[in-house]
Amino acid sequence: MSTKEKVLQYLEQHKGESISGQDLADKLEVSRTSVWKAVNGLKKEGYQIEATTNKGYQLSIDTDLLSEAAIVPLLSEALKGHRVIAHKTIDSTNLEAKRIVNEDPTFEGVILSEEQTKGRGRLGRVFYSPSESGLYMSLVLRPVADLDNATLITTAAAVAVCQAIETLTGKKPQIKWVNDIFLDGRKVCGILTEGIMDMESRTIGTIILGIGLNFREPETDFPDEIQSIAGTLFDKKNAAVTRNQMVAEILNRFYLLYPDLVKRSYLDEYRKRCFVLGEQVTFPQGNETIEAKAIAIDNDGGLVVALPNGKTKILTFGEISIKIKKER
Ligand code: BTX
Description:
There is one protein chain. The chain is α+β, with helices and mostly antiparallel strands. It folds into three domains: 3-59, Winged helix-like DNA-binding domain superfamily/Winged helix DNA-binding domain (Arc Repressor Mutant, subunit A, Orthogonal Bundle); 68-273, BirA Bifunctional Protein, domain 2, CATH 3.30.930.10; 280-322, SH3 type barrels (Roll), CATH 2.30.30. The chain is 27% helix and 26% strand. The chain contains eight helices and 15 strands. A seven-stranded mixed β-sheet has the order 4-5-6-10-9-8-7, with helices on both faces. It has a five-stranded antiparallel β-sheet with strand order 14-13-12-11-15. A three-stranded antiparallel β-sheet has the order 1-3-2. Strand 2 (49-52) and strand 3 form a beta hairpin. The protein is elongated and about 80 Å long. The mean pLDDT is 93. Ligand BTX binds next to helix 5, strand 6, strand 9 and strand 10.
């Protein structure tokens, strides 16, 4: 860990408290000059660090920049040894995760960014990812028990994100099958799970789980095409928690579910949170749009729908629209 990272980790863990340059240097076993240089470097990156002659350095409680230093201390045992890499800006954290795995197939960890210039949704769609208002993260996973079912991973992630939001904010998010999380009727989160094939074994060797969460309202509003769809957890100013805390909570929650994915014990919670069950939905099939009633989530996370001809069909991926939306 560099001195800058050590200084940041200390200040993040003691946010709002002051420490003199000398005490910090002694604690970290580095020189006072290197502490001073590290603090200046952090200030340039946007950290609000006050320096007063009598009290020393203090990281403002308003600072909320994504960083390894702030996240790692909050992670559970299950994530020890996982890498946390935070970027200011990147094309897409899923693309970056793929590039990293290409270089190092054993990589395990999470890639985060303050902003994505080419945030990706499903089917080539765009996920709008403005700076410093959202969480854009990609987890690099190995399949557990040879299970590489993307729908199961997506549904487990949806439950983990809902649990994290509820634990940290008290808000009650719901899920639109299969990969969208809604709060007060608006989409606050999307999930994109992608598999990377291992060429030798011809099996999925690595899974990239991308999660995009609108944390606070962006500085400039959402673009027109998603104005009526997109929502956020908090308004521009009043976030009760930091994004770093939210990242850590999502990771901790997900890694509680993931090793036991094969048991599918989280699916009951998914069903309870899934607001499409019981609703009339439409989905595309070839050139047609089919109407059906969503009746269940099956054991693989698929959506069971009842067709007008009395038959049932299981949807394993794709997009559904809700025809008549209940008031909620
Ligand atoms: P999706 O295809 O289900 O949703 C994309 C659709 O959602 C868009 O067509 C648009 O209508 C709407 N949309 C776009 N941006 C937003 C937004 N910020 N909030 C709400 N609605 C929006 C969902 O795909 C999967 C998204 C995964 C995003 C993560 S971020 C980290 C990782 N990296 C990456 O490039 N993608 C994933």
